[in-house]
Amino acid sequence: MSGQLDPAVADRLKRTPDGLVCAVAQQRGTGEVLMVAWMDDEALHRTLTTRRATYYSRSRQQLWVKGETSGHTQYVHEVRLDCDGDTLLLTVDQVGAACHTGDRTCFDATVLLAEA
């Protein structure tokens, strides 16, 4: 599947030199932050048209659909662009673990600062 990102959306994006935008996935209903990944224009276009979270792997340099191999999918309900245009917020229904380690979120491991 190949397509063009809406020019009105594309013009608002502030990309890294590699052409990527940070994407934060948040659980619908609870607001729990699940993971942070990257999107290029094609990944965002696919996400907007299929409602399946599609990201860009910097290490593999290719698109990947969340859960395509693991079954741990993200159904996208909403996508928002922040005021600076450099971060996307995806409100999703997460099925299974969001993190590649098998944890529910990628933020379950190390707490750097907690309530006293």
CATH-derived architecture: Roll
CATH superfamily: Phosphoribosyl-AMP cyclohydrolase
**Major beta-sheet overview:** 4 strands, mixed
Count the DSSP helices.
Answer: 2
Q: For the terminal residues, how far apart are their CA atoms?
A: 50 Å
Kindly provide the radius of gyration, computed on alpha-carbon positions and rounded to a whole number of angstroms: 14 Å
Which strand order spans the largest sheet, edge to edge or round the barrel? 2-1-6-5
**What integer is the average pLDDT?**
95
CATH topology: Ubiquitin-like (UB roll)
Q: Which percent range fits the helix content?
A: 10-25%
Low-confidence blocks of residues: none
CATH class: Alpha Beta
Number of beta strands? 6
**Basic shape:** globular
Into which percentage range does the β-strand content fall? 25-35%
Please indicate the count of domains. Answer: 1
H/E element order: HEEHEEEE
Structural category is mainly beta
GO molecular function: magnesium ion binding; phosphoribosyl-AMP cyclohydrolase activity; phosphoribosyl-ATP diphosphatase activity; zinc ion binding
Family: Belongs to the PRA-CH family.
Binding site for Zn(2+): 83, 99, 106
Pfam family, one: PRA-CH
